[in-house]
Amino acid sequence: MTRKRYISLILILGTLTALGPFSIDMYLPGFPAIAKDLSTTVAEVSLSLSSFFIGISAGQLLYGPLMDRFGRKKPLYIGLTGYLFASVACAFASSIEALIILRFVQAVCSCAAAVASVAMVRDLFPVQDNAKVFSLLMLVVGVSPMIAPTVGGYVTAGFGWEAVFLILAGMAAAILTAVYFGLPESSKPDPSYSLKPKPIISKFIMVLKEPQFYTYALSGAVSFAGLLAYVSGSPLLFMEIFQVNEKEYGWIFAFLSIGLIGASQVNSIMLRRYRSEQIILTALACQLVIGTALVLGTMAGWLGLFSTIACIFLFLCCLGFTFPNASALSLAPFTKNAGSASALMGATQMGIGALATVVLSLFSNHSAVPMAGLMAASAFLSMMILLLGQRVIRARGLHYQTDGAAAGAIH
């Protein structure tokens, strides 16, 4: 493979990977404007984010089997085309109910890009290069939350929230063109691959019976729910309670993302001296302390804008250690069913995250207490799940080595 071809493939796969994060983060600064235009509340608008997370959860379980059965590009074409039309429809949504439904459709379609990017790395590059390529793609995922809300803030301020969805549609059109002309079909269709529910479900059940999987996947997913509670609650927190504008919100969101990204990179260094089990336990303990301080400080009225940002920054730093190690430990027992385990883990994370955002919307009282309380609760429940699950693992004498490289990146 020539260097030019290598760079071309990386760029196209990187854009596929970035589509999901941009879809989540780019419209966040527009929450107050959407609420005003659709005659609803910011809490109601946040349900469109919840429906997106539900769509991602369902879509991850859908596209894996489809791409094994029909090849990579046909499902990808369908997904990107559906995403394009759903994005345009979001821009012209006339009610919050319509926006919520269209965001679900947009999310399901966007999963085609995420699943294809992972599968095609394995198809197109030598095994020894996969870790390097995945690191580059994970860097795109990490940088996207820094860029997307900042760009979204300026677009919303200058052209209105509808323009954000039209830009996302334009991204989909550009990616679709690049995929058509620049990506080869990396996997031939396999007519023998069964799409019947029974064999697919049986693989998922086999994965769920593994104590190490359900301990770390569930603990990681509940901890991850704290991140999604922050993402969902941040527009109300910063733009309504602290009265920052769309552009300032974008910069705050970008700064806070540095905590998550930076910690995940430090995690790679820590893994040279400590095991994943040690790191995740320490990180969750710190996350619980910080979450408790955040909710108590919020309830007492002690925290201003900068102290709130500091607490959330530290909370996200803890997640930068918790989430990648939980992912690596969840998948460590699997070789044969690694694909099913990965899809189930992703669906669990997004499913629980979606539930957290719905709960946040239901208990919204125009204060920061529900968001802070949910973040603290996620840390507490995650710690309890981890401690109880580790007791089961020790009782059964189970232990699996993790790949430090895999644990060092956010999946």
TrEMBL record:
Organism of origin: Pontibacter saemangeumensis
InterPro entries in the record: Efflux_drug-R_Bcr/CmlA, MFS, MFS_dom, MFS_trans_sf
Keyword terms of this UniProt record: Cell membrane, Membrane, Transmembrane, Transmembrane helix, Transport
Ranges where the Major facilitator superfamily (MFS) profile domain occurs: 9-391
PROSITE patterns: MFS
Coiled-coil intervals, chain numbering: none
Classification lineage: Bacteria, Pseudomonadati, Bacteroidota, Cytophagia, Cytophagales
CDD domains: MFS_MdfA_MDR_like
Family to which the UniProt record says this protein belongs: Belongs to the major facilitator superfamily. Bcr/CmlA family.
Name assigned to this protein: Multidrug effflux MFS transporter
Transmembrane regions listed in the UniProt entry: 45-64, 76-94, 100-121, 133-157, 163-183, 213-231, 251-271, 278-296, 302-323, 343-363, 369-389
Gene3D superfamilies: Multidrug resistance protein D
SUPFAM superfamilies, alphabetized: MFS general substrate transporter (SSF103473)
Compartments, record wording: Cell membrane
